[in-house]
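yo

u said u wanted the structure for the complex thing, so here. seqs first:
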Amino acid sequence: MSSTRPGRERTPCIVLGATGSVGQRLVALLAEHPWFELAAVSASDRSRGRSYGEACSWSLPTPMPRAAAQLTVGGIEPVEEWPLVFSALGSEVAGPAEEAWARSGALVVSNASSHRMRADVPLVVPEINPGHLALARRQPTRGAILANPNCSTIGLSLTLAPLWLAFGIERLHVVTMQALSGAGIPGVPALSALDNLVPFIPGEEEKLPRETAKILGTLTAEGVRPASLSLSAQCNRVAVLDGHTACVSLALGREVGADELRAAWEGFRGCPSELALPSAPPAPVLYLEEEDAPQPRLHRELGGGMAAVVGRLRPCPVLGWRYVTLSHNTLRGAAGGALLLAELAASRGLLEG
Ligand SMILES: NC(=O)c1ccc[n+]([C@@H]2O[C@H](COP(=O)([O-])OP(=O)(O)OC[C@H]3O[C@@H](n4cnc5c(N)ncnc54)[C@H](OP(=O)(O)O)[C@@H]3O)[C@@H](O)[C@H]2O)c1
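structre next:
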């Protein structure tokens, strides 16, 4: 992995899949990033050779960054060396491309599911399991792959981690209502999305339990020993632009009062403040008092779109407690989470040769 000194000079990086839903968020966030500088963009053959401004059907409310618009879109193979690679490719193409970049010496931060469950790939939510980054040094390549978890899993895990640490969790049932932007660009056809709910998102109900167990798991010499908790998920696509909501019912390891649950969330900080990671929200879990909160349109941007917003904590007659949580899927659940992960890796020396 080639050298950089975060805070002193910006590390040049490439975004793979820069024209997509997550790629566009990365391009927008990198335009203002103090540590990393967008140097190259890549996408499919459809876009290759064109300027980013022409190739990308920009879908964010802020203007496309001018410097990015002038970059020429390249392919996803490592023909040039870049120390830092953000991958926003679909998992059908991400696997081999990310491996090739890791072989070339790059630190690859991936949003795809291809390598998340590999024993030597850290699956990290920086506030929860920063120590799992040590796995990156066990990879056989000159560079390494770091995995950002699934978009629903990140928000859910942020709300579970403080409870897991303080009380233990025996089992939980989660029903998600996931935004359209989670399906990428062009995404769900209008005739399927409007006036509708689609009660199936391929692979999602399997990812939630296995990724949560890895994130909350224990690092060992063999890899991560998954946390022992039983999680059942039902995942739905709903007609919301951004922001995944989850209704959670759970059985904790011991009797707990509402005040203790609230205190666990409100006291949870995660990333040590001395690291001063630029994308870290001041509080990763925000509790809202209003009886009808959280709502995607009103609350997804709280904490810069990097917080898991929680509300409606109340007793559950089946499992003990229940609550609702919301997180921004392309910010906290993808591009913002990937940047925070890269910042953590840089602060821990993983970008140094
Ligand atoms: N959307 C979310 O909320 C979200 C959240 C967390 C994780 N993720 C994950 O992040 C990744 C990207 O998701 P997305 O929603 O941004 O997808 P997307 O909107 O469909 O974008 C896919 C990107 O990959 C490029 N691409 C597609 N096929 C390619 C090929 N054969 N070779 C090279 N490039 C190719 C596309 O380029 P062209 O424009 O040239 O076709 C585009 O830039 C996925 O792995 C997804 O599971 C998404």
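Confidence is low (pLDDT under 50) at residues 1-7. The chain is about 25% helix and 25% strand.
cya
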